[in-house]
Design brief:
The chain is an alpha/beta fold. It folds into two domains: 3-158 and 216-257, Vaccinia Virus protein VP39 (Rossmann fold), CATH 3.40.50.150; 161-212, N-terminal domain of TfIIb, CATH 2.20.25. The chain has eight helices and eleven strands. The protein has helices spanning 3-25, 27-45, 59-66, 78-91, 105-108, 129-142, 156-162, 218-227, and strands at residues 49-53, 70-75, 95-99, 113-118, 143-154, 166-172, 175-182, 190-200, 203-213, 234-236, 251-257. β4 (113-118), α6 and β5 (143-154) form a beta-alpha-beta unit.
Length: 259
């Protein structure tokens, strides 16, 4: 598929997912859980302005805004951005939404920023090395000198080694959300699925969403970051910035500075 077809696939997936996304991810409860970690990151890098790239319904953008950061939030899904705007109005927070694919951010967003955040397993939607390189170059162009980039994705070293098919199940209200992978004969790309089971008076209704993902590994991202002009990156096992362990960490979080 071309990059255009890939972007359309991702857009359609998240447009359809948007109505359920906050329930599936526990939107409100996450503020209390993650706020202390972002306070430390903001203090560590003196962050006053930030771009949330691949923002979804805006949880991280809103959290950063709550903590006093000026935030732009970009996503390819207009349905996700509509929910971000509704949240920002309800919470009385000033977040600037931008409809843009990651590959075109430097054209569609005016920087520079103190920080760019690309969180929540957004990066694996980039299905080839050239697309990954373009996105990281866009991030680099939008950062001020000594600005910081944070990437967060699932730890595919562990997932692929164990072939962990089911990634989680969450019950919220009358719905259950089951996230799982289909593993092809080769590990690239995976197919990520979300099965939603809605309880109704007449029984259980099901809905299945599916999208391809690139199971990016640490060394591949490191090479692309250095090629894009970033300094030597640091790895962590979660947004709490605990040590990364390839065989057991839930996430791979990468911190990289623009020299």
């Amino acid at each position: 598929m071309t990059d255009q077809h890939t972007a359309l696939e991702v857009t359609e997936f998240y447009d359809r997912l948007a109505p359920d996304y906050d329930e599936m991810t526990g939107f409100e409860k996450r503020f209390v859980k993650e706020s202390p970690f972002f306070r430390l990151i903001i203090r560590k890098h003196s962050i006053q302005s930030a771009l949330d790239a691949g923002c979804g319904t805006g949880f991280h953008a809103l959290l950063l805004s709550q903590l006093g950061v000026r935030v732009h939030a970009a996503d390819v899904s207009r349905q996700m951005l509509a929910r971000l705007e509704a949240h920002s109005r309800a919470m009385r927070l000033d977040v600037q939404p931008v409809a843009s694919p990651l590959t075109e951010l430097a054209r569609n967003v005016e920087g520079p920023f103190d920080a760019v955040f690309c969180l929540g397993n957004t990066l694996p939607h980039l299905l080839d090395a050239k697309e990954l390189q373009r996105v990281l170059e866009n991030f680099h162009a939008l950062l001020r000198p000594q600005g910081v980039l944070y990437l967060q994705l699932l730890n595919y070293e562990r997932i692929l080694a164990r072939r962990e098919r089911v990634q989680g199940a969450r019950r919220s209200g009358s719905a259950t959300y089951v996230r799982f992978y289909d593993f092809p004969e080769e590990s690239h790309p995976l197919r990520f699925n979300i099965l939603t089971l809605h309880d109704t008076e007449s029984g259980t209704e099901t809905d299945l969403l599916s999208v391809r993902l690139n199971p990016l590994r640490r060394e591949e991202i490191h090479r692309a970051l250095q090629s894009a002009g970033f300094a030597e990156p640091c790895d962590f096992g979660s947004i709490a910035l605990d040590p990364y362990k390839a065989d057991s960490s839930s996430d791979l979080v990468i911190e990289a500075l623009r020299p």
